[in-house]
# Entry
Amino acid sequence: MPKKVITFGEIMMRLSPPDHLRFAQTNMFDVSYGGGEANVAVSLANYGTPVDFVTRLPKNDLGDAAIQSLRGYGVGTAHIARGGERIGIYFLEHGSMQRGSKVVYDRAGSSIATIEPGTIDWARVFEGADWFHWTGITPAISEGTAAVTAEAIRAAKDAGLTVSCDLNYRKKLWKWGRAASEVMPELVQYCDVAIGNEEDAEKVFGIQAPETDVTAGKVEADKYRFVCESLHERFPALKTVAITLRGSVSASHNTWSAVLWHAGAFHTGRQYDITHIVDRVGGGDSFMGGLIYGLRAYGEDRQKALEFAIAASCLKHSIFGDFNLVTVDEVEKLMGGDASGRVSR
# Structure
């Protein structure tokens, strides 16, 4: 039995108008649950990886519903703390064609926002685990979540775990008094693996790929070697750095690829042309889940790990909700070149 992966962050209730309606048009919402680290946990569980998700949720029916959602996908929830007043909520208006999607957060004062160091017994959480994953979303929520994230990372390193992070910069969340550029270096310095999108390293650390224009869809893969190497130079503990590359033709049509740097070797992945996107939320998380699986499953074949992560996140764009509900077989089929979408009988 492989050792467990542990992820830590906030799971929220997601409310979305159906059928690409705008907020002003709808009188109902589709309800689901999601959040960066929870999304990674569900991906890994679908791949057969033992995984526990750690968070804090209110002791009420909505907290129970979020936990049941995770359990239904095989995610371990034994270390979820109960307390606080409310579950965080986010509203998602799905974009289409040239109208982008829109997110409105309602998560101030959520249960995890009021968490304090000492709430989680990290030594117990990390028993039987060899990997810990967090994202830049969690320390952005509050001073308490930043402190608990730091507490968790130190405990993970003491226990000998591999530590990974998704830089995941969210401008709307950094409101508690310190900027991402002040907090994140204290945390990333202990990480072994980091990923980000085309803009995360620039927004958090001021590291920008030369001659790129994300808004114009100019995301040439080789330009991001500079970003990977610059992150390693600043944080020498980083052994592996990956950058996802999204070319946004419109809200409904994106190109999707990624690059991976490891110990001086630079890998470029296949690019997918994704048309008629069903739901792009959770795309980066599905890449991270795929990368963790690939790095653990394929040994030294980091090109294969990268291709698995890209293919997994490509498939996520066809699935409604935050969670990537695909299997290893489905991902490897796409990796093998079968992108036909033919009916499986």
About this structure: The first helix runs from residue 36 to 46.
